[in-house]
Design goal:
With about 290 residues, this protein is an alpha+beta fold. The protein contains 13 helices and nine strands. It folds into two domains: about 160 residues, Regulatory protein AraC (Jelly Rolls), CATH 2.60.120; about 120 residues, Orthogonal Bundle (Arc Repressor Mutant, subunit A).
Length: about 290
Amino acid sequence: MSNFYNGLTETFISDATSDIISPFVSLHYHNSYEMYYLLKGERVYFTNNTSYPLQEDCITLTKPSRLHGTRGSVFSRILINFDAEYLKNYFNETFLQDLLQCFSCEFIPSEKVRSYPELKSLFFKVNNAIQKQDFLSASLELVPLLTLLKNVTRPLEKNDTDSNEQNIESIWKYIDDNLASIENISQIAEHFHFSKYYFCHFFKKRTGLSIMEYICSLRIQQAEKLLANTNKTIEEIAFAVGFKDRSYFCLTFKKRVGIPPSTYRRTYKNSDDKNKKLLLRGDLPQVNF
């Protein structure tokens, strides 16, 4: 993957890779907008609130700070991340916010994408400009791409979901709302009147994740934010995100992030703006599930 920076501002990240052998992509988040075009293969894309089965020609759109990832078979895709702050060098706030409306939709199915064949070529144009480190051209090429995506996604934003999708979205919301107080899987299963076995099977089938993998990733994400933005003690943060033991929290945090919580906080406090972005993006070493 190519990472490009302009001064202290992360402008674009792009990648157009074929035949990636990566069954698991860790849950992660970052401060940039992300556009993902699946060229080949099958994946499951999941975010804070739901999951989507991906096949060739599906597109996902991810807002900043959204916990997300994919799982599945060998695949090829175009991945584009961009910093909206950088685009303000070229576009005014009103125009930019209008362009970003498409990110209110997280998923565009293949049949919809295929009815707009120019989408794929626009993805490649933006990617090619980024690979050449031509940020002005990349910014200008984003305009027709985001404009078309806005038109494509407008009728999709209020699509009805089936009962399974409604169930999984209710589960995501319950976990988000009760993250600090959830003690075990049975607590969640009972809330939705499921047996523990059925609930675990249902969640795994719909998301590709075990329920505890998801909860742990979400707790670590929240802990990173509290370490960076508050003066709470590590013990207070551990309890605030749902860990009942400080030592276990520190062990889990180090395993997932690569450094202990105290080091993470110290590194963040002593970092310049660019490195703070990297820390909050989750670009420290991660452990695949």
